[in-house]
Every structure is written in structure tokens, then in C-alpha cells.
Amino acid sequence: xxxxxxxxxxxxxxxxxxxxxxxxxxxxxxxxxxxxxxxxxxxxxxxxxxxxxxxxxxxxxxxxxxxxxxxxxxxxxxxxxxxxxxxxxxxxxxxxxxxxxxxxxxxxxxxxxxxxxxxxxxxxxxxxxxxxxxxxxxxxxxxxxxxxxxxxxxxxxxxxxxxxxxxxxxxxxxxxxxxxxxxxxxxxxxxxxxxxxxxxxxxxxxxxxxxxxxxxxxxxxxxxxxxxxxxxxxxxxxxxxxxxxxxxxxxxxxxxxxxxxxxxxxxxxxxxxxxxxxxxxxxxxxxxxxxxxxxxxxxxxxxxxxxxxxxxxxxxxxxxxxxxxxxxxxxxxxxxxxxxxxxxxxxxxxxxxxxxxxxxxxxxxxxxxxxx
Amino acid sequence: xxxxxxxxxxxxxxxxxxxxxxxxxxxxxxxxxxxxxxxxxxxxxxxxxxxxxxxxxxxxxxxxxxxxxxxxxxxxxxxxxxxxxxxxxxxxxxxxxxxxxxxxxxxxxxxxxxxxxxxxxxxxxxxxxxxxxxxxxxxxxxxxxxxxxxxxxxxxxxxxxxxxxxxxxxxxxxxxxxxxxxxxxxxxxxxxxxxxxxxxxxxxxxxxxxxxxxxxxxxxxxxxxxxxxxxxxxxxxxxxxxxxxxxxxxxxxxxxxxxxxxxxxxxxxxxxxxxxxxxxxxxxxxxxxxxxxxxxxxxxxxxxxxxxxxxxxxxxxxxxxxxxxxxxxxxxxxxxxxxxxxxxxxxxxxxxxxxxxxxxxxxxxxxxxxxxxxxxxxxxxxxxxxxxxxxxxxxxxxxxxxxxxxxxxxxxxxxxxxxxxxxxxxxxxxxxxxxxxxxxxxxxxxxxxxxxxxxxxxxxxxxxxxxxxxxxxxxxxxxxxxxxxxxxxxxxxxxxxxxxxxxxxxxxxxxxxxxxxxxxxxxxxxxxxxxxxxxxxxxxxxxxxxxxxxxxxxxxxxxxxxxxxxxxxxxxxxxxxxxxxxxxxxxxxxxxxxxxxxxxxxxxxxxxxxxxxxxxxxxxxxxxxxxxxxxxxxxxxxxxxxxxxxxxxxxxxxxxxxxxxxxxxxxxxxxxxxxxxxxxxxxxxxxxxx
Lengths: 372, 690
Fold this sequence. Notes:
A: mainly alpha, 2 strands, B: alpha+beta, Penicillin-binding protein 2a (Domain 2), Beta-lactamase, 2 domains, 5-stranded mixed beta sheet, elongated
């Protein structure tokens, strides 16, 4: 970077991450422009504006001092849990399931906020846990409670995708915290056993239908299998170079459901082909690699776990969404970060990015003491 | 595992970060590989599916082949129109959409009720016709509102048109949207294409494959919800082939309209070829209105009509022929060696054993010609008694009675020509002399259709074994030569000439066409046992009125049979119709002007009268009428409805009334009440083959 030409605060921004993200979001805006039939509204322009807004938010987060963050861990966790309870309560009052809280002009989805928060709280927990206690099974209880409470609240909404995301982020932090490998293998085995039981006794009908459909999309090609079938048609018909900008018939003629949100990758792949898809994968690869690099360079255990968990959260979004649209995972309502239209997921992901930038700043401060 | 310390945790973190990075990279590679597989290896398959999503192939129902009369005039054609159909499975909100359609098309409550029934009854793939013959404004109004009416399909196309409507209903049948059974039988997309109609009855059904044609196709780009974005290309349809009938359209129309308010059938046969010029049964349904499905009011109207519009009386109505069999009997007698010059004295009846069979009048001494002319029962009783009815029955069959003819799309019943063997088989009883006497004058067990009597007349008139045909240019070759000598035929024809032109029973029906004379024979067939005779009394108890005739007398060209149900005397109801129809063949202008005068007193043409009746019904019942029957029920009604009083009860009655005076001949002991005889029987027993 041309450090000399730019003012210090701008030059020190992690351009290795921000630039690809800006490119990806711009690309997303182009896809949304096409999905709206060649119009900036209603998707493309707000998408870009939100990105700009959340970049500022991320930069603001990146300036947070470590002490403040550590101090704020439990209050933040408590506040988000409270919001989840509030959502649940409001849902009961209004007589229907609800995921949003309206605070003045802001529409907040607390379950989204919970994803980075769970990383934060677990990173802090394992940071304060004495090293000798890590492998002790009794030390599993607090993180189980920390993960369990929001997970149950989210499942009540019901939002299986977010609950899985929270669990995944938590598990990754615990994995990085050095918990014995056999616990994860054991949990994996237990999960494999529990999955059929959950399928029959826990899942809602529509969730069960999604799993059935995933296992055999042709079983109901016009019903629940419709999404996956149409999404694969969109991706497959795009070929290597795509049908060309603005020429995607699957999205323009409404065959592709949720063409601007959960299935935006299919919309993109239809018009931009395999090349567009590889570009998206590449950008995520660059960003995630940067994230893991930040985690490795991080000055202390807390920031390491924090950065690793945040990276995992972004990864979970992108991987599950793309696996879903390509028919490798059941349809769960998880959007693709920076491409899908929608404020909540953009905010979550930018909080993750902001946190990574913050850890990056801490590590640079630690490695060059006295410079700033 | 070694005890965990801060530094081992740090090392483990680095290792595990690497693992996570590797997993992430692995997932990335997996995604790239998966996408490459879908987009490259399976690209062709998905491109095709994407195209089949995008492009909608709409079939254009082919224009149906015309049905032409012998002169090339259309009996059934197509007219361009705007129409609306509904595909029930695509409806999002049926009640709202039907209501919106009802408003746009100004449908009446009964029509809306019909529409809802049809939607409810339709199989999910089936297109339900809503309306046709729309004007452009209505069509445009619906087209504009299509986005809020998913499943509603407006289109411009062609609909079947029968210019003479009811006159050809029974003959041609009608068309309608395919039902589930038809689709199961022939599983092609055309059958469920909105606007496509197939033949449901008569010739329309028989010649379905010839008339159908090849559908066209239109490729359009459509959205997932079915909205058309733009037309891509279009292939024109190929119209079905025409078929040409022996029918004379003008004459068919005339005969149907001349029947007027009666319940009657007219069959006219060309004595040169056997071609059927006219075959009509009135009243009849209007095939034009049947095409969109039968409405509930129309169905109620048809079912409540005691004239039984759904029955094709020309081929499925069976009646005792009465005296119209006497010309046939005279030929049979001559074959048995009875001299036409032999005289029989008619003292007003005939004594058989201890019973007295009463004739209509005291005719005095008559020879064969005179007996036909005056329709003297005594002559035929005594002569048939002499030769035996078992020798008459074969001649009756040879002349066409009791026979079924090979006519496309014409579902016939063949009636009864009784003989001893038949009675034994049917009733397990011995044939009696009285049975023979009854049969000799066309009563008792004898049952014939108007078509059979027309064939009989054509065979007597031509002296050839003519076989009736319907397809123009494809006459049926006549059968083996008839066993009658020209002299024998001349006697019979002479008798029939005198019926009309002498002092006979049909004298009032002499043709008023210069240079053309008609020969004929009246018939009056009893319905009930002497409840009332001839013209008086309740309609259903009156006798059936017959008239058979041919013209010109000296070189017969046309033969005809007319039956008027409960018309009373043959001379008073059937003969005038026959005379006017015959006039129409020789002097159409004269016949038509007379008919138009008559129609003024009847309330207009059949179509106009039906329309008036429909309005009255609609005003009276509205949508409260129960729903109309399914296709199957309509078919059942057409093939099985025989009419409550047709054929008539013939319980032990042998008297035959012919002249104007009706003598209440019921002089108790004088009436030959026969051995107990099973009363009139159901359709199957009457020899219904279908």
C-alpha cells in the first residue's frame, strides 16, 4: 500500500480485506441491479448504502480498546439475550412468530447479533479459564449454558439456521481453545445418533420437509424441492461464462425463488457463470485467510479466540449458503454475506469484519509498542 | 494427553487454526468442484430445463373440419370468436376470480352456479370453458386484468357453429371439452388444451379423427406465474378435413321447422341412391349451446319437456306402424298368390272364431288397391289370416322393418317384427291367429322406427333393395333383387297413389305442385287401450300419426316417412307435414313462404322459441336449479330415453281407426281381447342392441 500518499488512519486500514469485500459488494449490487430488472431500486442502491454505513461501523468497532471489550462482554451478552426474550414475548403477544425488534427507525434481528456475541463471550470465558481446567469436563458447563440459552430462544422463533450458526461459532471457539479432540469426535458421534431422533421429534414439519427434499429433491419438484431444483437449473444453465448481464431467465421470469436474498448466488451464477462463482469463492477465500491470519498474529488468547470465532462465523454463512444453492445442504434461511440483499446479515458480517480489524489493530499495537 | 499449559494451548491453537483453514479451503474447493460439475458437465441438461421453464409451448386448437350437405353448404362450420377458459388447478383464489369474471362478463346467477359446478367437477388438468362469442371489449377487459386472474385463459379462436342449430342436433351431435374418460382414452396434450372441443355424439363423434385436424403451436416466453412476456414463434394449425353428407341442408332445416310445436320425426330418402336427404327429430337440443357444457337451466328445460328433445325419434323412437304396413302386406299377399283383383267384402269388421275384429267403417266390397286406398282392415285381416302372418313377416324384414342399417354415428334401435318363433322365445307362448291379425295392421307386437319405414317406402317406390347411406358420394350398393314382379309392385303403388289422389285417407294431402303427384299411406298407431281415439283427449293418450309417401308417383325420386307422436290421425297430423316437405323438394319457394306464415303463429323458429322458453325458465328458477348432468348422463339420456309413452302400450287392442270418424268400437265382447299378454315391455326387451 502506498502508505506515504494516504493519511495514517486510512492507510492503516486492512485493505487486504476491505478491498475484496468492496469488490464483492459491488458485484452483489450489480447482481441485485439485474435482479430488479435493470434498476438500482429497490435492491442495489440500499445494498451499497448499507455497506458504506456498516464499513464505518466496522472501522468504529476496530478502534475499541481491548479493556473496554473485555469489560463489555457479559453486559452485551445479557443485553442480546434479553432482546431475544423480548422478541419471543412480543411474538406471543402479537400471536405469531417474530424475529424482529423495532427500535425507532432501527429494525433489529437479535438472533443475528447473537452470532458474534457468542464468539465474544466464549472467547472471554476460555481466556479467563485456567489452562489446567480446559480439559476438565466440569468446565464444559458454563459454555454449555452460554450457548444453550440463546440457542433455545432462537429455536423457539423458530430459526434453525441461526441456531446452527450460533452452535457452530461456539464449537469453533471451543475447538480453538484447545478442548480435547476426543470430545469433538464424541459430540460428532452423538450428533450423528441424535440427528434421526431430532428429525422425527424436534423439527417442525416444514423443516422436516426441507431435509427430505434435500435428500431427494425430485421427490417433490414443484413443492418443497422447487427451490433447490430451480437454483440448480439457474447455476447449471449459466455454464462457464454465464448468460450475460441482465439475461438470466430463471431470475427474471421468477422461476428462482428468493432471487435477491437467499438464492442470490444462483442469480449471479446464471448471468456470470462459473467465472462469477469462482470470483465469489476467491473473495471469500481471501477474506477468510486474512481472518485466520489475524487470529494467528493476535497478541493474546482472548483476541486469538475472538478472531478465529469471527472468521468461522463468516465462513459458516458463506459455506452453508453456497452449499444450499448448489444442492449440497438442505434449504435453511441463511443469506450469502455481501451479496444477498438484507441489512441484518450484512450487519452481522461487518461486525465480524470490524472485530477482526480491531484484533488486527491490537496486534499491531502490541508488536510495535510505543509507535502510536 | 500432557497437562495443558498456556504454551501448549498456544501450540494447539496454531495447529487447530491450520486445521480450520484447511477445512475452509476444502469446503471452498468442494464448492468450486460442485459448481464446475453443475455448470460445465451438466450444463446441457440444465440449459434445456431452463429453456423449458422459460419457453411455453401452447397448442392452438385446430379448426375443425366442416360438415357439408350434399350441395356443399355447411351444416357445421367454425366461427372466429373470443373465448375464455379456466384452468382450475392454476386458480389462486377461485371464489374471488370467478366473481371477478362474473362481473366482467355480466354472468347471470345460474351461469355462475354452472361455472362453479364445472370448476368443482373438473379434473385438475381440465380446461373449463367459461364463455365464448365474447365481443372485443369484454375480451380486452379480461386480458387487461389477467395479472390478478391467474388460471384464466382468454384467447381468440374458433368455435363450432351449426347454422341451423336444433335441426341438425341429433344427426351431427355436438362438441365439447374433453372429459376425464376421454382424456384417459387418448392421453395427448391437445385434449386438455383450453378451447379444444371434440365430438361428443353423432357424426361429430364418429368422424372425430377426420374432422379434428392438426393443432398449431405458439412458443411464448412466460414467467413462473404463467404471464406471457413475449411471443417467440407460431406454427399454424391444419384444419381438419371436411365430410360431406347426403343430407340436403335446406330440406333438413325445412322439415325440422315444419314440425313446429309437435314431437315428430321426418326421414327422406333418395330413391336413386338410398342417400338420406333428411333425418330430423324435433324438438331437439341446440348443439350450439351444448359446446360450452350444458347449463342447468337448459338441462332442466330439456328434461322437463314431455316431447323428449334428447331422444332421436327418427332412429331410436319405436312405434307401432299401424296401417303404414299395409302396402308391404299387399306385396306379401301377392307373393303368396293372392290375386290383386280378388274382392273381400267389409261388413264393418272381421269374425275370427267367436271374436269380432271391428273395422273403421263399412267398406263394402274391395279389391287390393281399394283396400290400400281406404285402409280397410277387414281385407287385410281376412287375407293375412288366409296366408298366415309367418309369410308376411319375412317380407316386412326384407323391406327393412326390424333391421338395423350401417349408418355412421347413428345409434339405432331395430324394433320388432314378430313371428311365432319370436313370441315363443320372448314370451314362452304360442302364436295365435289374433296375434297375426294384430300384426297384419301394424299393431300388437310390431314396432318400427321412422327410418325403417322410410327405407321400406323407398324400396317399394324403387323396387330395389336400397340401402340407406349418409356419406355423399359413397352410396351403399343395393342388396339382392327384391322378389316382386313389376306388376305386383305396380298394384301396391297404384293403391298408394289412390290414397292421396283418389278418394283415400290421404286425399287432403295432394301435392299442390303442377305436374307432380305423390303416393302415400296414412297410419294411426294406438297408444292406449281405447281411452280416447284419434284427436281428442290428453296429449299423451292420443294416437301416433304416421304418413309414408313417395313422389313423383310415376317415377319415384323421393321416399319419406313422418311420425307425429300423439298427433292423432295419420291424415291430420303427419300427412300435412309430409306434403309440405315433399313440396319443398319440388317447389322450395312455395313451401318456405307457407312455412314462414305458419311460424308466425308458433312463436318463431325453433331457435327463437327455445330462447324464449329459456328466458322464461331463467326468470322463474334462476340459479336455484340443480346442476346439469355429466357427459355420461347426457349420453345415457340420449341413448336410453325412450320416452315414457313410446312405444305405446298395445294391450289387447286390435282395432285400427283410419277414417275421420272415430267409432268408440269398444263393444265389449266384440273386441278380441286376446290371451293374457304381457304388457308393453322395457327397452331391452324390444331388441335394443346398444
